[in-house]
Amino acid sequence: MTLAADDLETGTAGTARPAVLLREVAAAHGADLDRLPYVVRLLLENTARLSQSGRAGEREVATLARWRPGAPPAQFPFLPARVILQDFTGVPVVADLAALRSAAVRWGLPADAVDARIPVDLVIDHSLRVDLFGRPDAAAANTDNEYARNRERYVFLKWARQAFGGLRVLPPGTGIVHQVNLERLARVVATGPAAGVGGLSGTGEETAFPDTAYPDIAYPDTVLGTDSHTTMINGLGVLGWGVGGIEAEAVLLGQPILLTVPRVVGVRLLGGLKPGATATDLVLTITQRLREHGVVGAYVEYFGEGAAGLSLADRATVANMAPEYGATTGFFPVDHQTLAYLRETGRSREHTALVERYCTEQGLLRTDNGEGVDYSDVVEVRLDEVEPSVAGPRRPQDRVALRDLPSSFTDAFPDTRPAGSRSADEPVVRDGDVVLAAITSCTNTSNPALMVAAGLLARGAAHRGLTVSPRVKTSLAPGSRAVTGYLERAGLMADLERLGFGLVGYGCTTCHGMSGPLVPQVAEQISRTGAVGVAVLSGNRNFEGRVHPQIRGAYLASPPLVVAYALAGSVLLDLTREPLGHDAEGRPVMLADIWPSGRQIADVLEDAVRPELFHAAYADLDSDGATPDARWSALPTPPGDVFAWDEDSTYVRQPPFFDDVTPPTPGEGEVRPDDIVSARILALLGDSITTDHISPVGSIAESSAAGRYLIDAGVPLEEFNSYGTRRGNHEVMVRGTFGNIRLRNAMVPDREGPWTRMPDGEIASIYEASLAYRAEGVPLVVVAGKEYGCGSSRDWAAKGTQLLGVRAVLAKSFERIHRANLAGMGVLPLEFPAGQDRETLGLDGSERLTIRVPQIEPGAHATVEVERAGGTVTRFEALVRLDSAAECDYYRHGGLLPHVLRNLLGEAPG
Length: 910
Description:
single chain; 5-stranded parallel β-sheet; globular
């Protein structure tokens, strides 16, 4: 079954019928469907469908049908149509499933007792590293290196593809997961057998991709993904968001997740973007505005004339960065722009017709500006007030107007030297110099207008004789092969290559730390002088230490601005009034001189972006993830339903999460964990601790605990790869937990990095300290500030925390996904009472904490006793952030995976 074939749904569009009739459901509960936000309509459809199989009740259906602003909290189940994984987060998910199957078989269960119950796509896109750049063979050489480094992981995934019936694997070189999802995988409307559960029926007769096998049932395409930026698909009218790998595992096994009736924030977009402003500038503005307004955990839905006028690609750019403004979604309902995009990207005529008919009949096709919908509250953004911007140097929500970038940098790094002319004896790298410029990331490479703008600006710069300094590492890593297709068709690839922005491969690179080594002389100068080099990238994340360990400042920017700053060579230049450089005659070349007009961009798009390019980009992929690429085809596919774990592997090892699981005993009462008694504080952390701080994704230092482990295992330094690629090995990951070089633990105020202080005053690495505490049987606690666990949906941030022996995390507030992951690993998430935190309590890390939870239930409180060195005890009540009955069950059993295994064992005959 080829993904690009026109006959995917041929003959089915006319016969597919809705699984539920939304207007009838709403009317049955006295509700006006047309007043409901579109995200609520989709949640209502899902819950009503689940009710047909008894997996939801009429009360939950009624709650959603009668949704109103300010509705009281209530929970309801949700099961998506499919799950999507990228390889960094997907390999641990698959490893957990494989380990769960191994454990189940050891206890006498059949192998197929553990299998994916809904369709799963895993796109290998995060393992590409930019080792080489600026040369014609860079992409091929980088991909060769990728296969060499990741052979064990890829062989494991090929085994998983044949062992798990619902899993499809898309190989390296396909593109970035979210862009592939947008351009090819997303259906908007799915067809299949799943009237009751939105996925596989569980009858044993299902197919992994049932859209053609059972053409008579139609329902909305919804998706959960193990990457925060799964929200990008909201731009296509597909409801989806990122979850932790632990939540994804529950969904894969057919367990609906429990959601809370949402607060829906309507964002009214007015007017249109003025010349010179891009979709990147818009999303940076929206991110800043919504962070100020406060939408954490809310569902954001866009409406208004400005929303209707945005291209689908611009909508996807805005939707992509929902995690950066803190929302669960950044949703644009289906409209005629959606239908046009489906046609433009090569979806079949039959399927596009099905989408239009289904959404029209179900009240899911928006044909106006959405002004008649009720929202919890409304934020207005005028598009004509958006100005050219960047964001940084450390957080994506810190928007900076282009003219203010120099002062933004000097404010962030007050000890930097002022800009000025560069003499012959100056160091190669000065503070504020751009040392890395990357056009990358799903956020912007999915947007043809932005990519064409970058190409046209490069053409204008080359024609004026401008060049990029050799100290700047430049790269182009687009999210699909369609991008290079239309750039080549327009003749713009050659212009980008002239400035060093040649193709380095198709995948997610710089955005998550796979930027590769800097220019050697630059790396040496930064190490020797401490100069603050800067990265400029068209990405969505720029947290400290993420892009590159030697780069302290990073700014997010549109693709054309990435090119511009590569040419300028420094962020200490105001590009609104200072030149990018000078031409051969010594005349200044201003950014405005070569910035492409909207008409120029539109003309290129009209000629170059064609459906056949998207057909060509995906035509060689089939349902097995097969490809003519000899490297993928040459990898062996291990046989068998149970994986043969290799104890000597440094990439994929059997995780220890089932080591202590015992079968349930007949008549077993409520299982509950012991109280946490006399725990020590492992780390005392501040606000906005990201999952990057907790579980780094980038390179592994030779001197780190993980580096020493790899050396002892015989792995040479050049083959260390990264934490992200070694997520299938718990021994590496637990040693890397809290291993970020920029981590600040208040227990060791004069150091950055993975350090803590022992009770005797000795400073030790966090990993070594955990071993010492484990040997003494001492439980551990982490204490933190606001927004603990923000950033990527990284399950290893919770897994590593648990493996270190941490029993609870006490914080002022949590990021949604990380809090759920902690619960899923059996780690207790606790919130300080209002008005209290580590400062008001005077905690310095030397205290002992005892935590007692009388009732394990949503909304419960725990008594926390703080015993200080002198024997005094302070008590307070902390909120237990186990937010659903399912999370309470996970905590009781020590985590989701032990809970699932014990359930399977309890249901086994005999």
